[in-house]
């Protein structure tokens, strides 16, 4: 197993490099950039996605902290830059690193990221790593509670539905799950606000933040209660889709295993239903659920919470990533992409290791 883990760790290097390279190449063709945003602010205009003229692959876009740049050619390639001092534009390009060739800035970006040096945000005047650390508690809170609640409820419910397949219990729970899955999380969030957060009916929960303004004055149990009071609605909004997916996946996986010959043999030997279900079926059935864990993990922590963070005014990583893309803050965009990609690869490796714990017959060494 140790040799397999080492091979997987080594394979992470070209994988993360490939992720960065593809994203870096896409950025070169995307219109707009930090300099265009500054020019638009100077001109009193909003930044648009078509603010760049020319569109050459080696353009003027940044691609990461201390490693972004493009070819300089005066102010002609920047829409709205006419009339501005060319030396001012050149200074902006040097400030963002845009005066470097494409291969140089990509190499600089990789070297900096290896050392976890992400530089500073283009527009916030703060280190990217500090900015991410500041937003991380919100995403961790939403992600951990979502995964914990979804898996704690979904797996036992999925097993019960498989055992009682075709019964009224299975039918009505499936109807509830399908309806819940069909409702987008952000729409469910709006519904919860209307019903329970001062919308049109009850005013029971707060609308923004993870804590109240008087957090520091509360006792320990008061802080715990205040924290739970703030996260109930956003976590419920995120759980609804993850809950439905995991439940149906667990049910179908158990149904597939229950119908196999080894289960019939175990029952013929006189084993009880509980022994058959949890002693034989459980390990095999859970493999497919474990396989979907990395994607669910990343989605719950980073991508799935964007709209929920916006609706409930929670300043987390999802909202940070979206705002950074809109503002062309590529230092933050590429740093978060790198960190998320690395976490995703590590979680995938951990899920493979979990395979062997659930079912010792799986031998990755032989592969």
Keywords:
2 domains, membrane, 0% strand, 67% helix, 14 helices, 367 residues, MetI-like fold
Q: Which helices and strands occur, and which strands form pairs?
A:
Blueprint lengths: L1 H28 L4 H10 L42 H11 L5 H13 L13 H36 L4 H15 L2 H12 L23 H39 L2 H8 L4 H19 L1 H11 L2 H6 L5 H10 L3 H29 L9
Helix pairs in contact: 1-14, 5-8, 5-11, 5-14, 6-8, 7-8, 8-10, 9-10, 10-14, 11-14, 13-14
Pfam families: BPD_transp_1
InterPro entries: MetI-like, MetI-like_sf
Keywords: Cell inner membrane, Cell membrane, Membrane, Transmembrane, Transmembrane helix, Transport
Helices and strands, in N-to-C order? HHHHHHHHHHHHHH
Kindly report the CATH topology of the largest domain.
MetI-like fold
Mean pLDDT: 76
CATH architecture of the largest domain: Orthogonal Bundle
CATH class of the largest domain: Mainly Alpha
**H/I helix tally:** 14
Strand content: under 5%
How would you characterize the largest beta sheet? Answer: none
Helix content: 55-70%
């Amino acid at each position: 197993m140790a040799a397999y883990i080492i091979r997987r760790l080594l394979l992470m290097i070209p994988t993360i490099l490939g992720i960065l390279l593809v994203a870096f190449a896409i950025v070169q063709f995307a219109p707009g950039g930090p300099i265009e945003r500054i020019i638009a602010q100077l001109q009193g205009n909003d930044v648009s996605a078509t603010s760049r003229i020319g569109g050459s692959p080696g353009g003027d876009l940044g691609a990461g902290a201390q490693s972004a740049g493009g070819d300089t050619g005066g102010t002609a390639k920047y829409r709205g830059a006419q009339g501005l001092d060319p030396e001012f534009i050149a200074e902006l390009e040097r400030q963002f690193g845009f005066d470097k060739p494409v291969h140089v800035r990509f190499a600089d970006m990789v070297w900096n990221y290896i050392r976890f040096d992400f530089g500073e945000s283009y527009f916030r005047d703060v280190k990217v790593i500090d900015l991410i650390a500041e937003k991380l508690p919100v995403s961790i809170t939403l992600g951990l509670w979502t995964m914990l609640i979804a898996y704690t409820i979904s797996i036992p419910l999925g097993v019960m539905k498989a055992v009682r397949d075709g019964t009224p219990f299975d039918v009505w729970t499936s109807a509830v799950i399908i309806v819940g899955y069909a409702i987008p999380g952000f729409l469910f969030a709006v519904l919860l606000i209307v019903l329970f957060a001062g919308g049109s009916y009850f005013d029971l929960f707060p609308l923004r933040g993870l804590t109240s303004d008087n957090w520091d004055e509360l006792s320990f149990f008061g802080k715990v209660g205040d924290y739970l009071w703030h996260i109930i609605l956003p976590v419920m909004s995120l759980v609804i889709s993850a809950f439905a997916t995991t439940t149906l996946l667990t049910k179908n996986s158990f149904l597939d295993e229950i119908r196999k010959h080894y289960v019939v043999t175990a029952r013929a030997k006189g084993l009880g239903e509980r022994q058959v279900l949890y002693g034989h079926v459980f390990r095999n059935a859970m493999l497919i659920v474990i396989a979907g864990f990395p994607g669910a993990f990343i989605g719950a922590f980073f991508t799935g919470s964007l709209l929920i963070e916006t609706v409930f005014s929670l300043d987390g990583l999802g909202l940070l990533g979206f705002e950074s893309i809109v503002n062309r803050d590529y230092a933050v965009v590429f740093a978060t992409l790198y960190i998320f990609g690395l976490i995703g690869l590590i979680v995938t490796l951990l899920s493979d290791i979990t395979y062997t714990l659930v079912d010792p017959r799986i031998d990755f060494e032989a592969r």
